[in-house]
Specification:
By secondary structure, this protein is an alpha/beta fold. It has one domain: TIM Barrel (Alpha-Beta Barrel), CATH 3.20.20.150. It is 38% helix and 12% strand. The protein contains ten helices and eight strands. Strands 1-2-3-4-5-6-7-8 form an eight-stranded parallel beta barrel, surrounded by seven helices. Helix 2 links the parallel strand 2 and strand 3. Helix 2 runs parallel beside helix 3, helix 5 runs parallel beside helix 7 and helix 7 runs parallel beside helix 8. The radius of gyration is 18 Å and the shape is globular. The termini are far apart. The N terminus is likely disordered.
């Protein structure tokens, strides 16, 4: 597998392909039905489990397609594909590999430098809208159903001040355009709050909800990541409950150090009780990062081993999350 030239979720130094929409809005998603966990009385969580492929590679191309059956063999329902340099993605081959393994798919999307929806220049904001539409179309072509990530600004882009009302307005305008495109493509967009060290635009779930409300599209919802919530929220479970069924569209189950879920400080019992309380029925996806790729680790500020092996994280994390869901 090739891991060259692209870094982490922000992929801050890479060049982005910002061609327009690919005209694939009519593609139907091929994601499998949710796999119900074991029941323990009452109504149980009915979710799908995904693994973000950043735990293996920083650049997903057709050279990495063998990751799909590998993750399927672990017992996952789908994979989350990193969308950084869009030029290297092979949507047709990826869809074929997913269908062969009977796997669903979501996309882990980032805005590149020069494509910020809340950028100061009109051409930068338009490039952001173009990139959002292209990522929607690529996800649809691959057979996925969720376009997830910090879709409002590039990761790591900080100004030394709080966001302005004008930047908020620009975000609303860009996401409204993207959401309208997503509606036509039958895709769900989910905006992910990041911690204060990675963005200044949206740090908490309540602000992500406000952004969704300002846009007013049923195809724009919130993605909660427990790594970021552990830093920014007063109470992660309370934030999940406040976001609620109406706005919670995607979920990253990540330990506080990005290690194996269940080995750190995240209050998992409370988290899963909250997911059950809001009747969440989407993806529960593990996100961590390949520790053997130096530029990826540098961008993620990972300076020490955070798990023994990627395979071990995938297997043990899935087992733990399924047990949490079963007993919630």
């Amino acid at each position: 597998m090739s891991h060259d030239g692209v870094t982490r979720r922000g992929f801050l130094g890479a060049a982005a392909a910002v061609a327009g929409a690919a005209g694939l809005a009519g593609c139907e998603a091929t994601s499998p039905e949710p796999t119900p966990p074991d029941k323990k009385g009452g109504k149980s969580l009915n979710v799908r489990y995904g693994l973000n492929l950043l735990v293996y590679t920083a650049a997903f191309s057709k050279d990495e397609l063998d990751l799909i059956p590998k993750v399927a063999d672990f017992g996952y329902d789908g994979v989350e594909v990193p969308f950084n340099d869009l030029k290297i993605l092979d949507a047709k081959a990826t869809r074929a590999a997913l269908e062969k393994s009977k796997m669903g798919m979501t996309s882990c999307c980032v805005m590149m430098p020069g494509t910020s929806p809340c950028g100061q220049k009109a051409e930068e904001r338009q490039a952001g809208i173009d990139r959002l539409k292209q990522m929607i179309d690529l996800t649809a072509e691959m057979g996925g159903n969720v376009v997830a990530g910090p879709l409002y600004a590039p990761v790591g882009q900080l100004t030394g001040r709080a966001r302005t009302q004008e930047e908020w307005k620009w975000c609303v305008e860009a996401l409204a355009a993207a959401a309208a495109h997503a509606e036509k493509a039958k895709m769900l967009l989910t905006i992910e709050p990041l911690n204060r060290f990675e963005t200044y635009v949206v740090n908490i779930d309540a602000d992500a909800v406000k952004l969704c409300q300002a846009v007013g599209s049923p195809n724009l919802k919130v993605q909660i990541d427990t790594f970021h919530a552990n830093i920014e929220e007063k109470n992660t479970a309370a934030a999940i409950r406040a976001t609620g069924k109406q706005y919670l569209g995607h979920f990253h189950a990540c330990e506080n150090d990005r290690g194996v879920p269940g080995t750190g400080q995240v209050p998992w019992k409370d988290v899963f009780a909250a997911l059950k309380a809001v009747d969440y029925s989407g993806w529960i996806t593990i996100e961590s990062f390949a520790t053997g790729i130096l530029d990826l680790c540098a961008a993620a500020c990972i300076w020490r081993p955070i798990y023994e092996s990627a395979d071990g994280l995938a297997r043990d994390g899935l087992k733990f999350l399924k047990e949490m869901a079963r007993t919630a």
